[in-house]
Structures
1.
Amino acid sequence: MSAAVNQGKYIAHPFVAPDESYLMWDAEKDGESTPDIYISFRQQDGSWGEAINMGDTINTPLYEQRPKVTPDGKYLFFWKGDVKTRDDGSRYVVGSPYWVDAKIIETLRPKE
């Protein structure tokens, strides 16, 4: 993977579109304290474009992870959670699934 996609201290949960036109994943970039969801679009030469943060519709100060698009291409599902601390000081994440219209993907596609 090129540096356009493979950057940050935590990178996980990739989802590749069935037609391989885009790749989504979650990453905790340097200087951030929680992971956000990113997207990269396949370029004409077959490489992946720059990582694009999916913006405020998806990403918040909470943990956003595990992006997946439904087989019919209509919905983008992802997981959103928050860190909790137990009495003993150990930490864990509590979260829930969320979904949005998958049309958001096309709004992020760079114009040629």
2.
Amino acid sequence: MIKSDNTFLPDFSHIYVESDAKKYNLTRECLDRFSKANIIEISDYKSFFNRNNQDFQTQKNSIKLILAVKKPPFIYKGTDILQDGGFRNFYYNTPILNCLYNCDYCFLQGMYSSANIVIFVNQKDMENAVEKELSIRPYPNDPLMLSISYNTDLMAFENILPITRSWINFSKNKSDLRLEVRTKSALFNSLSDLTPSEKILFSWTLSPERVVTNNEFNTPTLERRISAISLAIKKGWKVRLCFDPVIIYDNWEKDYGELLNKII
């Protein structure tokens, strides 16, 4: 579904703030960023985010922000269904729930009843949990790989809140920590001033333009993604290209073949 232009209020016209979240710097930064938004105080984000009878696709036309304090656990062990890239110590966390994009095949549509976006403002608690897990990881001779954008596209938020930047900076003095940033975003230029690190892996999903247009609603075009990837490689960052999912349709082999030829 592509956003309607006239019927709905703009994205982030309303921001719901947990009472306990008000004291955090990330909350203040977000409220300053959207100074004209209507602010509604709530006691618990779940009472709003998890309520019954929500329409995911309708909400996608006018996404609201929810600022909340995450409770433990702050880090999750990867499961067999996740692409771990060969890392035996593979984990993920959830700085944000839900995504700005609206890919029709995305598991988030079945995982959450709401299309609104939850930002957890107590990022320091997540960082502390990662530091603890580093000290007790099951394979101590192997690094810990942390996927920071498994339940969202974190880089797509970078012009809103620089959470990807914050995690990259956090990793700088953690010799045994690796970060994976999964994305379809074209906003790498918002990070291009950072010094490249071998510990950071940007995993870009690429699809034929037909899939981008018909299935990956509100995402950057293929050309914009390739431009962002080219900039990242030029700057010296590690990049992984992902073709996930491969969607079967008439002439799909031709489209995916042309995609591969375009990037090789």
3.
Amino acid sequence: MNYLAHAWSFLRNGSADPYELAGVAVPDWLGVASRRTKCRSRDAAPHLDSENAQLAALARGVCRHHADDAWFHESPAFGALSLGFAKTVREALGESTSMRPWFLGHILVEMLLDDELARREPGLLDWYYELMTHVDGAWVAASIERMAQRDVGDLALFVERYVEVRFLADYRDDDALVMRLNQVMQRVRLDKLPAAFTPLLAGFRGAVAASFDELVVDPDLVGKTPVALETGGSVSA
């Protein structure tokens, strides 16, 4: 899952704590700000019952991130879409570059799901970013550093930039989406996408829209207790 789909776990109920939203974004933020540092469910779980409500909310978000990723990446819809996108990219663009179609297929499903969610829920993206303006990036960085017991690099600065730039809104426009995809490709040292890639996006968007319901709700988590939802029934992630 990407940022907005992860946040939807909380936002779908009509209310959310900004620090739950921060927590559910933390593992992905670390992937940019400090790639060698991981904050796992087992790191956050001891803080779920903290007397500090802000810290407990942050921990709930981290645990929920891993619970959601666990079912999402094993779901038939995600598997079929990511594999199908990879095949389409390979057939259209060939295998002469280091684009890694399987990696591209994976992140395309996640990014396009965020866009489809924003399209179906008018005002959701603005509400999400408004809530995120209440997050203290320096406090989040210090708290996650204590949880993970590792340096978190430029996490505090990245949180501020994340809220300021609002790059999730770029996913609606094909050219802007390709620009954001190329930033990811550069970060993992893969080739930039050629111009021939952009026309493929219309079909990819339609495929994600058609599978939307299967991509946003894990039926196995329905009816579980709040702690089970936050941890996916486990703190081993």
4.
Amino acid sequence: MASEFDIIARYFSFAAAGSGGVVLGVGDDAALLQAGSEQVMVATDTLVAGMHFPAAASPERIASRALAVNLSDFAAMGAIPRWLCLALTLPDNDENWLQAFASALANGCAQYNVALVGGDTTRGPLTISLTVLGQLPAHALSCLRRDAAKPGDDVWVSGALGAGAAALSLLEPAAAKSAAWRPTAAQAQQLEQHFYAPEPRLALGQALVGCAHAAIDISDGLLADAGHIAAASDVQLVLRGDDLPIHEALATLENKQQLQPWVLAGGDDYELLFTAARDQRSKIEAISEQLGIRCSLVGSAQAGSGVILQGANWTMPAATGFQHF
């Protein structure tokens, strides 16, 4: 069966870069378009109840997650979000639900200085599709992109990993019931907060423009998203398991068979995975300190293909990340 990315490549890659004002088209976290003398960044994400969030989640949490997930694509490009379109599919027109959802979305838009400018509503299973439009920072000559990693680059990860998948294991009733690990109330709260309100690394992405070579946000899973950079850039990424930053809420989890798949392949972390030349280390460390965002040096890029995981106590999981098909 064709994967999500096979479907895109096979059927929907007919808009080649360089045609119709397309600077960077299908295949990255967002598209970059030339509109007269201006460049516009565009990204779309769709979240479906029961697939991307629990169907019973509150409308406030759904709105928060939908916006953050979409803005994370802009973080991966080093872009500034400006405008938002919402396509909302609803099973019914529950006005209490709509009021709560709209209020939370408005708060998020105010937080990130994004204006809701249009959209559509229709009836059907609960689905939220957001299209974000924006611009590059004034200092940027280009955006961050997946296909620009070079042999010899360092590989970095922002923040910490594993919280998204761990949270989902608690939010899914069947998984939570059978889980061997029982987090404390404080840990569970941390994990749920991360799942429903991940922090898109917008400031970091913008600061990395002109410093990093390639970048992607970790949504499908570290290994899967590293594979996207490797494939697009025609390089091999070598990741050191012992250097991977693990979320503090998972500090008491000693079962490596449970922890490692969350860190390596769980996804929903919405951190940035990026590559940069070795001579940029001090600049990246300075950016990290200035923004208060941890950036960990976790590997390197070299000639070859695919992703290699190093570490005597680390095992490549059977599935390297989330796939729709």
